[in-house]
Amino acid sequence: MQNFRPLLILLPVVLALLVLFSLIAPETPTTQPTEVAYTEFKRDLRDARIASVVVEGQKIEAQMHAPNEEPGATVTTYLPEFGDPELLPLLEAQDVRVEVREVVENGAAVWLVALLPWVIILGIWFLIWRRFAGGGAGGLGGRDIKDFLGGSATKETAGPIKVRFADVAGQENAKREVAELVEYLRQPQKYTALGAEVPHGVLLVGPPGTGKTLLARALAGEAGVPFFHISASEFIEVFVGVGASRVRKMFDEAKKRAPCIIFMDELDSVGRVRGTGFGGGHDEREQTLNQILAEMDGFSGHETVIVLAATNRPDVLDPALLRPGRFDRHVSLELPDRNARTQILRVHTRHVPVAEDVDLATVAAGTPGFSGADLKNLVNEAAMAAARTGEKAVAMRHFEQMRDRILLGTVRTLAIKPEERHRLAVHESGHTAVAYYLPESDPPYKVTIIPHGRALGGMQQLPEEERHTLTEAYLRDRLAVTLAGRAAEHLFLDSISSGAEDDIRVATQLARAMVGRWGMSEEIGPIDVRESDEHPFLGREIAQPRHFSEATAEAADTAVRKLLKEAECRATEVLKAHRGAFEKLVAELEAKETLERPRIKDCLDSGAATAGTEPAATACA
Ligand code: ADP
Ligand code: MG
Ligand code: ZN
To answer: Domain range holding 121?
Structure first.
């Protein structure tokens, strides 16, 4: 391909020139006619030296007699405007062949119109080829990746990348995982000698502004290898095939320059599930995606090329992208907790003079839900506010003013107000405490009040061992844990909120399965009363024809309600029994925002006289 490019670009030019030529000079004479004065022409005519003439408006082209049979020289001349009445009789007298041609009016305009399509075609060719080959004088030879990527952050054009891991605050897990790749890029032999294959595809996943792009650049900076960067806007072009060709070139170049890093930012823009777009299902985006898939499969396993991609929508990615051998390793970045926010603020105030009264930890405490990008923005806004009033340093009040402004102004950030935060802490602590105390349930592993995904907070449980069948006791506890957030709000805040919507949905689905599929209700017994083939954990529903009576359906509804009510009651009882420990957990969660197992255990073990004992079932029967 590389070697053909000059030919390809020359081809249309040559063609166009040929056509132009034939248009402009339809009958190119072998000898150029000489122009003579009209009197001279008339003398030749009188002297019978003219064989034939062609008249075209004022212009006369005369062919002379030649000594032999061959045609003689041609001359041209112009008839005077006022005409020459003698001319025609003279021509007849001399027996000269006269040919009169139609005059092409306004020649220039006609040529222009005729040329227009060619100009347009040529223009488009140039546009297309400039994208591939850079155009201009240098375009004929083809250009290499760094020019082709223009101003993008390739190592060569942007100079060595100065971002280091130290510039990425928090995100310890993500940094640790990415740091392993640095090792590999620096000393690939160490790994290949042992036959280890380091993953080619690493996907950075996380909400916007959490530092995915930053981390990718830090990786390149730390590893000190070439860094090829392509992002959303470059993937998808107006012309079909351009994005794909760009991807191919990038991978080709990267393989030559290994060890190196390819970074595809905002992968979701191109990596969405195929066959859902407009354009008949084979549009530019799909071609680009297919090319990426092909390139990722095309690694022989020995190239030290790491393909890094970032997205904040892993849910919409085409499953093919996530298959083994492609982006099979995921590194997730999360919104920063309080401690991480302090560190991020520290990073971004390194070069900002701050006043004595500024306490970054306090600023961090007041900015729950802010992403790294939001915090960077906050520092910048505060500095601008200070500059506006002519101050020498940024004071605490600047931070506060700007935080309030950002909180008011942004819909995008999932920033949480203090009242809301307290409710969230109570809700999540409810789940956590009940999961901790109920004997059959999976113990809590992590709890957070930092927004993630669509949820504002969350509690994660980790089963102590893998479960293959679910016992009734386990499922009842699970129901109680699911409804415990709501129970806690009710118990400690004396009101409930819309925050439990998802909990109620999940719990209802589970209770329906317990009654309708698993016969766990005494009233109904072991009868299949599924309304649909829903799976309580997958949430997929397939409608089924109903094969039971209205009465059974009603009884099932009652049984489901009873299970749910009982579960909520049990959750409430557990919380009542451990009020002291629970309140400690709420306070700790509000302060730290994310708690892991040891801290959870500390809080909940403290005031737990009745820990491990299930509250009297009679209270909820
Ligand atoms: P993403 O790619 O995840 O949307 P970016 O990497 O583009 O986010 O982040 C935007 C900016 O926010 C970064 O350039 C950086 O200045 C700041 N930022 C984000 N996360 C962090 C972090 N963990 N530490 C320091 N700065 C951060
Ligand atoms: Mg980004
Ligand atoms: Zn909940």
So the answer is: 2-9+17-23+107-150
